[in-house]
Amino acid sequence: MTLKTIVAAAVASTVIASPVMAQDRSDWPGNFTVGTASQGGTYFAYGSGWANFMAENLDISGGAEITGGPMQNMALVHTGDLKFGLTTMGPARESREGNSPLAPGMKMDNVCAMFPMYQTPFSITALSSSGIESISDIPDGATIGFGPAGSTSDTYFPRMMETLGVDFERRNGSWSDLGGQLQDGLIDVVAFAAGIPIPAVSQLEVQTDVNIIGMNDEEAEKVINNFPVSEFIIPASTYQSLEEPSRVVSMWNFAMANCDVSESLVYEMVKLTMENNDKMVSIHKAATTSVPENYDKNTVLPWHPGAARWFNENGYEIPEDQIHN
Fold first, then answer.
1. Residue 60 is part of a domain; what is its CATH number?
2. pTM
């Protein structure tokens, strides 16, 4: 091989390996932060790993921020306090319509979709020693932990429990804290809504015996008829404590950006995320569904122009009227 050939090959490989570096980055921020949720939950693990992945490959400083979850993330991204965040479709719809309990009447319409993440199953965990093996076993007046105030779980799970006739006392806190309270006998049940496997549940079952509780036919049908959720099966392999698949309900999650964020930055972030699913799965197993085919699960948020450009270039049609103008 001649010297000229070697040099030409080296230049070509450099161009292929660093396409982002060659483009105009004048409208990119010097750093970014993604709003996640509490420690011990899937949002924090997924969001932290994603931020690090973006930072390493785009040569931009980035990290995750602990927040109250989807509702608060919608507010923070809408106002521009955070450029990126993670949200669930239910809270996203309520926030866009001005029905967020954090800012009643404020229509949070400066939030744009980036890419699909995963479904959030709603599942219940109790200590095996409690004798609670089904939703109907939850005693009247039981103290139930619903996650951080304003989270997807806190927004919907109490309503679901009321619909199913459960009488309870409400407790809020981070997933890690509530898991500790359950283990110490300070609360009776934790009603989790997070991508699986939930770190706090995995930690709990290593330390003690737990029951992971699903829904029967009647309970699932009643919840699906009253809330923006669909049926979901938690595979038995998800947790050591499951002997068979557990039927619950779930809601889709999407990554989002403030609509004013640089189109080219969002394009590169979506490209990295959608074209490297193996890396995303190494960050969190829930990312097995963080694939472009699930773009159509977004029925709430307008698409960021940078995200829409990547999807349309790769054969996933997003109509013009669904793209933020």
1. 3.40.190.10
2. 0.80
